[in-house]
Write a structure and sequence with these properties.
The protein is mainly β. It contains one helix and 14 strands; from the N terminus they run H-E-E-E-E-E-E-E-E-E-E-E-E-E-E. It has two domains: 129 residues; 78 residues, Immunoglobulin-like (Sandwich), CATH 2.60.40.1930.
Length: 232
Amino acid sequence: MSNFENTATMKKIFQTFLLFILLKGALMAQTVNQISIIPTNPTASDTIFIISDLSYRGNCPFGLVYSYTDVTDSLIQIFPTYCGYWDTTLCNSVDTFKIGPFPNGDYHIRIQYHQGSICPISNFDATIYQVDTSLTVSNTTSVLPDINLRFLLRIYPNPAKTQLTIYSDHFNESHEYHLRITNLLGREIFQSSISQTELTINTTDWKEKGIYFVSIFDEHHNKVSVQKIVIE
């Protein structure tokens, strides 16, 4: 073999190895940060929302191109497809998939994430991640209790990254209100008394990204308002 042929062969081997490393790194970057189910205890009359927080490498502006759902007996499969399989840009996509209502029973949920190479539609399709979780539909009441619908509350921005502001004209009244923020598991993340119309909360130190619930209680400890927020 001549020196030229040997150099060309080595070059091809190096290019193949480099491509393998790039593809391996791209695939390793795919990860699901959080899966949330709303309501957490659905009944047979509830529409169910599954919120997925996915990090992947691809074409971020296109993001989620399409998704479809297949239900076979107690197996619920969701197939979201994202854009840009060969791209190396790190993306994050928070997406909501609506399913149900379903009869009472136990269900297995499988989300299989796919990615195409051409945006927005591609004949090439690769499975980049899969996550499994479970769901029980019963007569248990859903996650949000009865609240005072006349209590107007504004929370912005939502989704939030570094801070969020909570505003209500009711906070001007001569009543004492209390704020409590919990995650999906009901663990308290933040609490405070409210003595002014507007309260700004710094969220940069919150380690968990995803869905939280902001609950407002009056002086009699009655919950008068609850809203869902997303921290990115």
